[in-house]
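Next comes this protein:
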Amino acid sequence: MNFVQDSLCKNTDNVGVIFLMTIDRSKTLTAINPFATIHEHSTIPSEQEILFTMHTIFRVVEIKPMAKNSHLWEVQLTITDDNDS
C-alpha cells in the first residue's frame, strides 16, 4: 500500500485502483479452477499472489473512492462464469 500512495504523491495526475476480489468456487461451473495460488513460486511469498486463467470473468460489485484519498479507488469484484445474468 505504501508503494501505491508514494507513486500517487509523485504524480497527482495518476489514479490508483485497488481490486478486491471475492472468489466463491460455487460460482464457477467449470471442472478446472480458473485460478491458482502461486505464492510458493513468488520471489515475495508474503504477497499471496493468485494467477487467473485467460478469460476469467468477474462481476463489478462496487466502485468507490477510498477514505481520505481522492486519487485511490477501490473496485470490488466477484468471480462468475459465462452463465452469469
